[in-house]
Design a protein that fits this description.
The complex is a heterodimer of chains A (200) and B (655). Chain A has five helices and eight strands; from the N terminus they run E-E-H-E-E-E-H-E-H-E-H-E-H. Chain A is α/β, with parallel strands linked by helices and 200 residues long. Chain A has one domain: 3-Layer(aba) Sandwich (Rossmann fold). In chain A, helix 2 packs across helix 3. Chain B has 655 residues and is an alpha/beta fold. Chain B has five domains: 157 residues, P-loop containing nucleotide triphosphate hydrolases (Rossmann fold, 3-Layer(aba) Sandwich), CATH 3.40.50; 87 residues, Helicase, Ruva Protein, domain 3, CATH 1.10.8; 85 residues, no CATH class; 156 residues, P-loop containing nucleotide triphosphate hydrolases (Rossmann fold, 3-Layer(aba) Sandwich), CATH 3.40.50; 105 residues, Helicase, Ruva Protein, domain 3 (Orthogonal Bundle), CATH 1.10.8. A five-stranded parallel β-sheet of chain B has the order 2-3-4-1-5, sandwiched between helices. A five-stranded parallel β-sheet of chain B has the order 7-8-9-6-10, with helices on both faces. Chain B has a two-stranded antiparallel ribbon with strand order 11-12. In chain B, helix 15 packs parallel to helix 17. The two termini of chain B are 76 Å apart. Classes of the chains: A alpha/beta (200), B alpha/beta (655).
Amino acid sequence: MSLVNFTSREITCKIVYYGPGRSGKTTNLHYVYGRVPETRRGRMVSLATQTDRTLFFDFLPIDLGQISGFSTRFQLYTVPGQVYYNATRRLVLQGADGVVFVGDSQARQLDENIESLQNLQSNLLEHGVDVRTMPLVMQYNKQDLPPELILTPADLDDALNFRSVPSFPADALHGKGVFETLKGISELVLKKLAAGSPTV
Amino acid sequence: MTSALNPRFSFETFVVGAANRLAVTAGRTVAENPGSAYNPLFIYSGSGLGKTHVLMAIGHAAKTIAAQLNIEYLTLDEYVEAFHAAIAAGQGDAFRRRFQNVDVLLVDDVQFLTNRKEMQAELLRLTEALQQSGHQIVLASDRPPAEIADLDERLISRFSGGLVVDMGIPDYETRVAILRRKAEERGSKFQPGVLEAVAKVEYPNVRELMGALNRLVAFQAVNDTPMNAEAASKVLGIPTAASPTAASSTAVSSAAASSAAASPDEFSQFLTDVTVTVGKAVEAWRARVTEAVLRWEGEGYRTGRLEKLLEQETPAAVDEAIAAYVQDVERLKALEAEVAVLDPQAAGEKVFRDPDRMKAAEAAAAKVRDGAAPPPAPSAAFPFDSYVAGASNEVALSAARDVIAKPGKKYNPLVIAGKSGLGKTHLLNAIGLELAKKKNAIVACLSTQAFVDELIAAIDGNRVDWWRARYRRATALLLDDIHLLAGKERTQEELFNLFNQLVDADRQLIFTAPSHPNTLEGLEERIVSRLEGGLVAEIAEPDKELRRSVLERLLTQQRLPLEPALVDYLADRPVDSVRSLTGVVQRVVEAAAAQDAPVTAGLAREVLEGAPPPRRTAGLRTSGIVVSSAGGVRSREKMVWDWPGASDRVIEDLR
């Protein structure tokens, strides 16, 4: 996927929200959808089961308009968190410019978080992408739950964030930390342009 | 050659604050009463604080009040260029007349007078002329006159004699006023508080303040919603104090989560952030080019080539272009360093700061290298120990010894005065040879005529700079027959500058002249006064003892016996110079050789006084009439054999 097209002067960023089932990936997208002016957003595509679980993926295109002469678009995707949808996850990851790992802050979900993180790594490898080179941020969602149920961002950093990527505590349901996370991953993705030569 | 006044730079468009009020008031006064209020007016301030604006505003205001006024604005570099061009075209006088006829002369960037002695002299002359004729001169610099390195004291006092005012960094209120006016000029409207937030930053100059405003204008243009103060601060990277709205961008703290999250501005905020990031990242090549431009511009190099890249939409091979530019700059640095050793002044030439003129820079360096060829050296035919001492040249010789012992320290310049043939040239070269023996010595020793000829050739070949460089490197400059400078104005000008430079650097100067410098006609007063400033040592006509010493040396050189009668006879000959004495000896020696006879007093007398050679007359009776070799007919009986000396002759006449 071409991130920057100098000929058509377009920037397109594909950002994938990854994480275990029910960690709040789709909630993130819903919140963003609710905050983006209608003129700026496309139709949010969400294929969910009757029980509100993402069956295939969510897709939210956002048009940021002309920035520095470039028509800038963000495409936000989520993957289905359930273990048995790995083929879909791998498909969605293809061509991703950045990944937001949405972790569940509940202490009992720690193993799922770790498993999903390993799954992310292996799926990226399937695409020949080293996770170390992929722009990645961590979001520790559900920080609004009672403290006795959740791990603190510091604990979660210790457990999950061994690469010391930017991490954001969040309450996606109420929007706290959602845009901070999006901003964090956007910066990483866009800065990668400065480091490497622009692709065409 | 001079720049036109920029119509945008008038007093009306200049925002006056406490930091620049005095300069503006003085400028207005000068514009209203050119030549009579403050003359010269000297304005100084750091870069980007409005010097040029005020200079041009004075020009506009003066023109508005009196349209017939002849007003010129130019930078010092332009002035220098114009001067060089005029000199090269032999139009030096026309150049001076042109500027002396300007009613209001506005000269910018006067700080570049550093290390330009001749321009300083020229500007001093011009300032004096303008003041005398009641014309106004206004100068601008980035520092006060006294802090301009190497500036002639006379210029400092001249500049300080008018009014010297500075312009400081504008205060907050002035900054707000500037921003409002400029935003209005650009047709941009900002929410209340935006410009005030920007003005809170103490930018070191107005130019950077304008840069900040430009960024805001640009960012606002790409956003649909008007920018608020916080967003503006963020765009400009200004840290803001924590405020209720700012809290929304901090990490979650569960308590205040919902209220902060409900901020309707979240998307705009995000958009601003992304815009900034994209600005930095997508256009990373622009950032790299701009960075290079700023860096090299800061170091004084021309960056036109890089700026052209910025004008393109998507230039190819940006990094290669930057690398090539840097390579050229490195080469320029190397050339400049090389040139600086040979000719410090040439190293300051613009061409060594313009990577787009590499060929010109290489050529300029080559020229300096050519110029580095040593100037004409003293002649080895005049060794010091062959110079005969006597009472008549005692002073000159003693001074010569002192000069050799302490070149540049004791008698500088040393002028050896005396009639032709007294050994001035010999002594000059002899001193030169001794000086040349010193470590790292570069002794320029030549006739004034050769000096003049060299300059003419240099002007003709457009190589005056290297010609100067050649002599500026000399540790000693020895010019024979300085009176030949008479009427050569340009050479006198060059010598004047060279003289000052060399004396300042304690380099020895020695000249010869036929008489005391103050009797020489056709030399400018400033040259004469400098010649008199050291020691004028006169060489008198050779006394008998000196003549005897010279004879003994000459005869020894010719490997002839030192017959006392011969030496006595020749030493008594009435000669007025060593050169004549040498001629006399030469005649005798040649005659002896022709006759294959020994050199004796008798032969000498016969040769010099017209006696026929003994052999030719032997055994022959004659009428007593002889035909001299010169073709004249002389009678031996009527010849006076022994002429008295010159002084005795006068007494004889009186009797």
